[in-house]
Specification:
The chain is an alpha/beta fold. Helix content is 25%, strand content 27%. It contains six helices and eleven strands.
Length: 247
């Protein structure tokens, strides 16, 4: 792996990071202050792009085998989210097959989705032509039209080598007062396996940053996104709803 962002300091609080684990020749550090766990060095853009080209193995039987159940879950979450905003522009960052994009579209939203995986985007465009899809990342996304009232970002931030750039890009796509729904693995969760290599949330270099609820809220707040609700996660994950500051 070519060196990407390198450094032993924490991206959230700038404290020192101690070497915490070496896994398959990859070094992970743990922040001595906020507890963020991160790769050092980070994967570079070439490596990141290669990880998400056909990330779902052709988007065929394995990943999209249970479309009906995925849509049922997406519709439930869409109804919950739609009650929290007044505007009707929705963006899913890391949309894979476009399930949330379609669920929000069915509720009357102008619904957009972005993903780095071109195969998944092609699948979404074919099956949900009412949505608007692009192959890109949050960091490279160029806003066309008005900002979004709701941004949905599920299991994506842990893939980002530069979490400040990622969150700044997310915030820039939102209207003042807009809502962000974000999920990510929780390295501090009581149900996380003691042997971290047995945890399905541990997947370097694909997952290169590992949060706990406190340092995730700290990172979001730095970029004007303030957590207003944290949802119960029985599996080792964090689920938060954050509002962009109106100022």
């Amino acid at each position: 792996m070519n060196s990407g962002m390198s450094g032993s300091t924490c991206q959230v609080c700038a404290a020192a990071g101690e070497q915490w684990l070496t896994h398959r020749d990859m070094v992970l550090r743990r922040c001595l202050d906020c507890g963020l766990v991160f790769m050092d060095p980070m994967p570079d853009d070439r490596v990141v792009d290669s990880l998400y080209t056909d990330a779902y193995s052709g988007a065929t039987e394995v990943y999209f085998a249970k479309v009906a159940s995925k849509m049922r879950r997406s519709r439930r979450r869409a109804r919950w989210l739609s009650r929290r905003v007044s505007g009707l522009r929705f963006l899913d960052i890391g949309c894979n097959g476009g399930f949330m994009v379609e669920a929000m579209r069915q509720l009357g939203f102008e619904s957009h989705g972005i993903d780095l995986d071109p195969v998944s985007i092609a699948w979404a465009q074919e099956h949900y032509p009412g949505g608007r899809f692009r192959v890109t990342s949050a960091e490279r996304f160029e806003l066309t039209g008005d900002p979004f009232d709701i941004v949905y970002c599920s299991e994506v931030i842990e893939h980002s080598p530069d979490v400040n750039r990622f969150v700044a890009s997310v915030a820039a796509s939102m209207v003042p007062g807009g809502m962000l729904y974000l999920t990510t693995p929780d390295i501090s969760h009581w149900r996380r396996p003691r042997d971290i290599t047995q945890w399905d949330g541990f997947d370097p270099p694909s997952h290169c940053v590992y949060f706990n609820p406190r340092n995730l809220a700290q990172l979001l707040s730095r970029h004007g996104l303030h957590v207003v609700e944290r949802r119960l996660a029985l599996k080792p994950g964090i689920k938060v709803l954050a509002r962009r500051a109106r100022v």
